[in-house]
Amino acid sequence: MNPADLHAMAREERARQEALRCRIMVCAGTPCLSAGALAVLDALRQAVAESRLDAEIEATGTGCMGPCSRGPLVKVAVQGKPETVYERVTPELGRQILYSVVKGRRPPTASPLPPDHPYFTRQMKIVLANCGSIDPERIEGYVAAGGYDALAHALHEMTPEDVCREISASGLRGRGGAGYPAGVKWNLARKAPGERKYVVANGDEGDPGAYMDRSVMESDPHRILEGMAIAGYAVGADQGYIYVRGEYYLAGRRLEAAIRDAERKGLLGSRVLGSNFSFRIDIRTGAGAFVCGEETSLMASIMGRRGQPWHRPPYPAQRGLWGCPTLINNVETLATVPAIIGRGAAWYAGIGAARSPGTKVYALAGQVETAGLIEVPMGTTLREVVFDIGGGIPGGKRFKAAQSGGPSGGCIPAEHLDTPLDYESMERIGTIMGSGGLIIMDETSCMPDVASFFLDFCRDESCGKCIPCRVGSMEMHRLLQRITSGTALPDDLRRLEELCDLVGTTSLCGLGQTAPNPVVSTLRYFRHEYEAHIRERRCPADRCTMAVEQEPGPDGEALMHALGAPGEVR
Q1: How far apart are CA 558 and CA 561, in angstroms?
Q2: Fewest CB within a 10 Å sphere: which of 254, 257, 459, 513?
Q3: What distance in Å separates the CA atoms of residue 519 and residue 447, rounded to the nearest whole number?
Q4: Continuous segment of H or E residues that includes residue 281
Q5: What is the pLDDT along the chain (570 residues), one digit of tens a residue?
């Protein structure tokens, strides 16, 4: 296939869609599937067949539409009319929607989301542009939406150096958490000596409450393949790997199908799009280890070794897979590349914040009216995300905090609701953007308990290679358990803070280095809750069960006698 063939395929698919009277799209992402979307899709397809309207109406599955807590979601696109999204659709309601299209009437029991709902109007979709609009299992839909045009442009009109310069000029930063400039990493890999080089897409997304990469892999797999191919051309690699979290079965299956289709069409493999560039992509499935999200552990896993980190430098761009230069980027980062190459670095750099350009995908979860997947310009405030897009806190409760960045991040309290969500602003208030998980908490959340939850996760996911992380995370969690159970002594809080500093500064990889962050940030903003648990044996949020009922003496001797020496657990 050459660029002319690609454009012909796009025209043919667009003509096919325009010939349809209506497209009824059912969200077939994991959240909606778990809510019963497959039964809705089957019912719609059966009703279309029974009505003998196959030539006029298409019922198809798509990727994530966004407001996951309102699923199953159905989008109706009638020619010449605005699209309508219906929430909480059942199989019977799906049939009603279809018959209303046929008869030109509105379904009597349907609940459409208004098109001017802030959840839709306040977003700017680049990475998620196709999610919920195309069938992720048909390459023609992606091509009709402009897919692979950026790859054709790069291969036939740009040099590898041009591509790297464009990525650098865009200001794109890695969306996996650290925010490292993508252009710097690409240039390091391009200039590194080596007969063979690799490109790796990191899809080992393990943060609790985060599913941004999963949705992109499930909803728009060809966007990732195109971004990887452009990266391979830019750095001189002929082999790519997508490392997919083991629990992401649907994402892996759709990526495999997308790779096969792209190879059949000449968009991957030998002489891509009639050029001299060849690029192959394979999938590697993780075994469920959170630490494999760290790039050196990930490479060890790809090579068939135990997923444990190793010292840097040398960095992967210098010496990575099998000793060869390796470019590793997060899935969202690579999914942004086609838009930058297609529309230009200046366009992308003009979006978002000055030092954090572009958009960011967030998984909005927890105590918020509308939870789901959103994409907003960098610099959008937390208040806009929670109250405008997310609809605020349910039940009239007060916002208390947002946990950003998962177990590696920290809590943002109500006093910082107007903080812009960009790398520098979030670092100033003691947290990180991370991969994009945002867990919203209301007044019923206990912050020491929240810290204990994330420490428990880090303790369980530690690979055990270095002592600070292996032992320190266990001891920190033990101290937090004492605090939340009302069995801690005042000295335990001092020991907890000392351990946070020790583990964070001496651990080998990012897991251990950032494991104390939830404790540090909750202590910074909610220290009074820790002190209430320790000194008053009381949980201000009424969530923790206090184990010690007797009142301590003025000097704490009664409590010490009951519990033992500091650090001792009975």
Answers
A1: 5
A2: 257
A3: 9
A4: strand 280-285
A5: 899 999 999 999 999 999 999 999 999 999 999 999 999 999 999 999 998 988 999 999 999 999 999 999 999 999 888 889 999 999 999 999 998 888 877 777 777 888 888 999 999 999 999 999 999 999 999 999 999 999 999 999 999 999 999 999 999 999 987 789 999 999 999 999 999 999 999 999 888 888 999 999 999 999 999 999 999 999 999 999 999 998 999 999 999 999 999 999 999 999 999 999 999 999 999 977 888 888 999 999 999 998 888 888 899 999 999 999 999 999 999 999 999 999 999 999 999 998 999 999 999 999 999 999 999 999 999 999 999 999 999 999 999 999 998 888 889 999 999 999 999 999 899 888 888 889 999 999 999 999 999 999 999 888 888 999 999 999 999 999 999 999 999 899 999 999 999 999 999 988 889 889 999 999 999 999 999 999 999 999 999 988 744 444 334 343 334 334 444 433
Q: What does each C-alpha distance from 560 to 402, 530, 555, 556 come to in angstroms?
A: 35, 18, 9, 6
Q: What is the DSSP letter of 387?
A: I
**Residue matched to tokens 């865009």:** 170
Q: What is the C-alpha to C-alpha distance for residues 506 and 508, in angstroms, rounded to an integer?
A: 7
| β-sheet bridge partners, residue 201 | 242, 329
